Amino acid sequence: MVQSSLASSRRQHAGARWLVRQLPALRDELERQRDFREEQLAHLLAHDENGTSLIGYGPRATDGDAARALREVRALLVSGARRALADIELALARMSEGGYGRCRACDAGIPIAVLAAIPTTTLCRVCQLSAEGVTSTGS
Ligand SMILES: [Zn+2]
């Protein structure tokens, strides 16, 4: 992590200049997403404490299958929101530290179009796929 080499590599690509210009807007967007996810999580966890009120099942949610389905939906939503929040925090941290726009695993440049569409991206496509286990050799 040498700051001067980072600065010079920034100047090598038009894409990097775009990134520097767009960084404040991307940061705003990420902070909006973070607020949304934190609110969503707080909401989900509050419902969790109340037990069964997520989709208005009321007393019938004490029924085994319905309660189990409800718990599964909620668990999926909570884990999805947590994962999204972690991605957002990671991207924001990399904006502060200077690694934003580069893969955090292999340091390859992440295409501008990808960052513009999904500002939380911190892995290149290859590393993303291997992180998801898509490239696994089995079956
Ligand atoms: Zn990579």
UniProtKB/TrEMBL annotation:
Keywords: Metal-binding, Zinc, Zinc-finger
Gene3D superfamilies reported for this sequence: DksA, coiled-coil domain
Coiled coil: none
GO molecular function, one term: zinc ion binding
ZnF dksA C4-type span: 103-127
Residue ranges of domain Zinc finger DksA/TraR C4-type in the record: 98-132
Pfam families in the record: zf-dskA_traR
InterPro entries in the record: Znf_DskA_TraR (IPR000962)
Protein name: TraR/DksA family transcriptional regulator
